[in-house]
Amino acid sequence: MKRNLETAKATRQAFCIFSLSLTALALASSPVNAASSSTKGKTQSSSHSTKKSAKPTQPAYPPVQPTAQPSYAPRPAVAPVAAAPVERSYTIGEVISESVFGDVYADPSRWEALTFRQLFTKGWDKPWVSPPTGGGGAPRMGWLNAYDGVFYRLSLGIFSWAHGPGSSDAYAGTLTSYTPLSERFQIRTDIGLASNRDQTNFADFIITPRILLSESKEQTQSLDIAFRTPTGNSINGQGYASINPTYNFWTNYWKGLVIRGGAGFTIPYAGEIANAGARSTFNANLAAGWYFTDHDAAPFGDLVIYVANNLTQAIDNRGPNSTTTFSMGPGFRDHLGGNWYLLGSVDIAVTHPKTYDYQVQGAIMKVY
Q1: pTM of the model
Q2: CA 272 vs CA 207, 234, 346: distances in Å
Q3: Domains, the chain, ranges and CATH?
Q4: pLDDT tens per residue, range 293-314
Q5: Exposure string for 134-169, b = 16+ CB within 10 A, e = fewer
Q6: How far is Cα 229 from Cα 314, in angstroms, rounded to an integer?
Q7: pLDDT tens, 167-189?
C-alpha cells in the first residue's frame, strides 16, 4: 500500500515537470522571443565587426494590405444651375413713363425679340427699348417718302414743295412725332400747315396708332391705322376724314442694305370729300437703300442713299376707275451729330394724270 502511494506521487511529479518543460519550450519559440534573440544577435555581431553590412530587417508580421473597395461608376459632375433672371413687373404708368421719358438707349440687352404668335401675350406690359442694328449692321431709321416699319422716339419738322402741273405749286409744313408707349404700341402724330398760291391753312390733323406685329434682329413688321380729322381746308386738298390701315415692314439681312415698304388702303368717310378730290385708294410702297458710314462719322454719320417707289390706285367710283399714280425718286438721311439728322427726298410722278410733276422734301430731325 505504501509502495503504491509512493509510485503515484512520483508519477504526479513527473507529469508536472513534463508540463513545465512544454511551456518553457513554447515561450522560447514565440515571435517576440525570436525577435529579441535576433536583435541581441545583431547587436553582438555588430560589436565584433563593422565591415559586414547588416541585412535589412524584415517586419515581424506581413504588412497590412488596404481593404479592397467596391467599384462603382463615377457619378457625372453636375453643373451648378444658374438662377433664372427675375423679370420685373411694371404698372401701366411705369410702362408709359419709361417708354416716353426713360433712357431707352442705355441698355440694349433689355430689348427682346417679339413674334407674331405672341401678339396678344407679350410686349404690352413692358417699356419700349430702342432695337439693335439689323442683321447686316444697318441702323433702324425712318426715311422720307418711305413707310416706317420700325418704332422710334423722335420728332421731325418736314417742309415740302410740289411743282405743277402748270403753275399750281403747293407747299406744306408738318411736325411729325413718334411716341412709344410700350414694346408693342406707339402713337404717331402729324400736325401741319398746307398752302397753295391762294391760301394757307392748317392741314388735317392725323393721329396714327401703331402696333408692332413682330421684331427680330433682321426684320420688323408693324400695322399702322391712321385716323385723319378734317381740320384743314378743301382748297388745299384737305378737310376730310379718313381711315388708313397700312402694313409696314423693314429688313436688313446683309451688310448696309435695307429694304422696306408695305401696303394699305385709304378710305375717306366724312368731310369735304368731293371738294378735296379725295378718293378711296390702294397704296403701296417699296424702298431700298445702302448705308455708307458709321453713326459716329458726323456730320456724315449713318449716311444712307435710297430710292423710294410709291403706287396709288383708285378703287372707288368718284372718278375714272383707271386712275393710277406711280412716283419714284431718290432720298438721303445723314447724322449731323448730337442725334440731330438731316433728311431729303425727291418724288417724281411717272404716270398720268399727274397731281404734281415732282415734289421736293426736306426735314430736320431730333432723336431723344
Answers
A1: 0.77
A2: 19, 6, 29
A3: 92-367 (2.40.160.40)
A4: 999 999 999 999 999 999 999 9
A5: bebebbbbbbbbbbbbbbbbbbbebebebeeeeeee
A6: 21
A7: 678 999 999 999 999 999 999 99
